[in-house]
Amino acid sequence: SSVHTCTASVFASAAGDLAITAAHCIWGTGVGWQFVPGYDNGAEPFGTWNVVGLFAAPAWLRSTAAPSDYVIMRVAPRGVGGKEQTLQEVVGANALAAAPADGATVSVPAYAIGRNDRPVTCTVRVSFQGVYPAFRCTPYADGTSGAPWLENTPAGTTVVGVIGGLQLGGCSSSTSYSAPFDATTLAVAASAATGSPPSSLPHPPSDGCP
Q1: What's the rounded Cα separation, in Å, for the pair 96 and 189?
Q2: Does the pTM of the predicted model rise above 0.90?
Q3: Alpha carbon of 188 to those of 20, 94, 199, 200: distances in Å?
Q4: Fewest C-beta atoms under 10 Å: which of 20, 162, 167, 207?
Q5: Could you read off the pLDDT of 20-42 as tens digits, one per residue?
Q6: Which helix (H) or strand (E) holds 193?
């Protein structure tokens, strides 16, 4: 199997074809990149899905601004059992929401970079480093960027962040950050859902880590 680079998650949309990851994980138009939901130790239980468009915040497209380190990916439907199905029909989806509150609890399933590896998950409390949501838990190494921050709410599970943002997610494996999801994040998702033209993303900046 090929080496994977980041983690992504599906979120609910009318067309059922959207996922979110960190913007520093992917560049260009996204064409040629693939998403493998449910990947586990080499197994690809839901198959491989082709990325066909990327949607990012204006501040990332302009200057790779760390608070805008997220990107919406549109993926093509594929034939499953002789019938064309969307990603969301096959794997389900969570709602996309704004950043969690200080002290909220999130679960963060992620994959370190490599081959044939299993996901790791921490369930942790959120604190803030300036504008950036943060948490402490050790196993988040390279490749875990883009991993979803999942918060359980009375209305269901929501995606409230992805590993990224400050220092492209953090210089140390023990502390991870997210871009602060806000109204702009939800607007980018809405434009992706309504068929707006996709973007071409710049190459990521340095993480600034020593």
Answers
A1: 8
A2: yes
A3: 11, 17, 11, 14
A4: 207
A5: 999 999 999 999 999 988 877 77
A6: helix 183-193
Distance CA 138, CA 158 (A): 23
Q: How far is CA 136 from CA 6, 43, 197, in A?
A: 19, 29, 37
How many helices (DSSP H) and strands (DSSP E) are in the chain? 3, 15
Question: How far is residue 204's CA from residue 187's CA, in Å, rounded to a whole number?
Answer: 22
29's CB contacts (< 8 A; 6+ apart) are 53, 54, 198, 200
Q: Which tens digit of pLDDT belongs to each residue from 125-142?
A: 999 999 999 999 876 766
CB 78 within 8 A of CB 62: no
Q: Contact 102/127 with Cβ under 8 angstroms?
A: yes
